[in-house]
């Protein structure tokens, strides 16, 4: 018999808040984290805006000397994990460390380290490349460093599937607990790609908004005037436990993962299937896995990137899966305020879904002033609202045709 998996802790580092309360408050107020890039000269870039993390102080959880050996992506992962473990009231010394694991995803990993060390190589030769270059760059080190910090010796690795990376990480952690291979899993994702090379690459792909004169209005999911996504950064980490383990230690339970679905489009490197076929199948699989009917879903946190093809394909997919019920429930896009957190988006948005269930409220999709006629669902335009939610879906789709849907809900929901 598979074990039930519950969420007992959550931690975020985002462009609109580095703790759960601030993050949730700003989501409900419609606060945008998008502004002109401050970290490097963007004057020659077609896109000069991004959603940078603000007021981030890694020394709250890390020693200063350690920071020189840890990429910003890893710093985000470590600090979000510390917040999640604190939120869970989990004492790492009081658990069986052999049955505690870590799965953390990232789409790109330590690209700022790669850029800096490549510059050192070109300017001063191989002797000037840091001996920490490789561990600072590789994606799996987010999970590795977290496991070392807390002594967790269970399953430990990273996941990479572009913008679905952290959602895949959470599915893997969920399955590990379901199978009885661990009692506690730390999971989620981290990303820090607001760098010269990364920005240039996405600009050349013509994937990002160029609404540089109105940064706060640039991320416009499902709006007729959308012109691409806005890059964001940050981390989202959750503490997952078997229900038995959580109850035995008297943990507060914030929700349960009831099911998950993952598919591939097998269609195009960057564009979704035009009819949203893979996205539809991921949602269908998640519902079947959770033993839920479409009518039981009370809310969908969409992938909602504000790309022309993506928003339409996701809308088609939701309607294909939920039928008439699709028009009766609120859907929204967290990215309208946070920008697109790439490999960490799935985790941050599942956390958003859990907070929405906890507070029985759905945050607005900001900048939705002129809805695209082909995006005709209730996308909660510009003003949030209270809503009765027992079960929710969280969608994540990535370049390469990777599709993930997580079905979450109140723990007392019947399996």
Overall description:
The protein has 415 residues and is α/β, with parallel strands linked by helices. It is built from 13 helices and 14 strands. It has a ten-stranded mixed β-sheet, sandwiched between helices. The protein has a two-stranded antiparallel ribbon with strand order 2-3. A two-stranded antiparallel sheet has the order 11-12. The mean pLDDT is 96.
Radius of gyration: 20 Å
H-E string = EHEEHHEHHHEHEHEHEHEHEHHEEEE
Query: Strand sequence of the main sheet, in spatial order?
Result: 5-4-6-7-1-8-14-13-9-10
Number of strands: 14
- Global mean pLDDT: 96
Main β-sheet: number of strands, strand sense, barrel status? 10 strands, mixed
Helix content: 25-40%
Query: What's the tally of helices?
Result: 13
Shape: globular
Head-to-tail CA distance between termini: 13 Å
Strand content: 15-25%
Task: Classify the secondary structure makeup into a structural class.
Answer: alpha/beta
Unreliable stretches (pLDDT < 50, length at least 5) are none
């Amino acid at each position: 018999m598979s074990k039930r998996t519950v969420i007992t802790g959550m931690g975020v580092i985002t462009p609109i808040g580095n703790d759960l309360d601030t993050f949730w408050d700003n989501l409900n107020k419609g606060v945008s984290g998008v502004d002109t890039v401050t970290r490097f000269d963007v004057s020659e870039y077609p896109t000069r805006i991004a959603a940078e993390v603000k007021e981030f102080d890694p020394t709250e959880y890390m020693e200063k000397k350690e920071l020189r050996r840890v990429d910003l992506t890893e710093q985000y992962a470590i600090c979000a994990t510390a917040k999640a473990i604190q939120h869970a009231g989990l004492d790492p010394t009081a658990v069986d460390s052999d049955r505690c694991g870590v799965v953390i995803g990232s789409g790109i990993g330590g690209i700022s380290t790669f850029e800096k060390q490549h510059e050192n190589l070109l300017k001063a030769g191989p002797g000037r490349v840091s001996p920490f270059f490789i561990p600072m760059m590789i994606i799996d080190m987010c999970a590795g460093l977290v496991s070392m910090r807390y002594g967790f010796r269970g399953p430990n690795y990273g996941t990479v599937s572009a913008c679905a990376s952290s959602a895949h990480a959470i599915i893997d952690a969920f399955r590990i607990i379901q199978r009885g291979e661990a009692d506690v899993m730390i999971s989620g994702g981290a990303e820090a790609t607001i760098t010269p090379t990364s920005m240039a690459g996405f600009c050349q792909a013509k994937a990002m908004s160029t609404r540089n004169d109105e940064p706060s209005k640039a991320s416009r999911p499902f709006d007729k005037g959308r012109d691409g996504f806005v890059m964001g950064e940050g981390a989202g980490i959750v503490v997952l436990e078997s229900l038995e383990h959580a109850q035995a230690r008297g943990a507060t339970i914030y929700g349960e993962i009831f099911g998950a679905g993952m598919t591939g489009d097998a269609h195009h490197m960057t564009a979704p299937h035009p009819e949203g076929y893979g996205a539809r199948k991921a949602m269908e699989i998640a519902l079947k896995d959770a033993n839920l009917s479409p009518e039981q879903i009370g809310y969908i946190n969409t992938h909602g990137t504000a790309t022309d093809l993506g928003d339409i394909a996701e809308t088609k997919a939701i309607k294909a899966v939920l039928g008439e019920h699709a028009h009766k429930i609120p859907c929204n896009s967290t990215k309208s305020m946070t920008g697109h957190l790439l490999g960490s988006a799935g985790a941050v948005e599942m956390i958003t879904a859990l907070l929405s269930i906890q507070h029985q409220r759905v945050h607005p999709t900001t900048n939705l002033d002129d809805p695209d006629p082909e995006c005709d669902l209730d996308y909660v335009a510009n003003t949030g609202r209270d809503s009765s939610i027992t079960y929710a879906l969280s969608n994540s789709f990535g370049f390469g045709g990777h599709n993930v849907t997580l079905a979450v809900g109140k723990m007392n929901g019947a399996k």
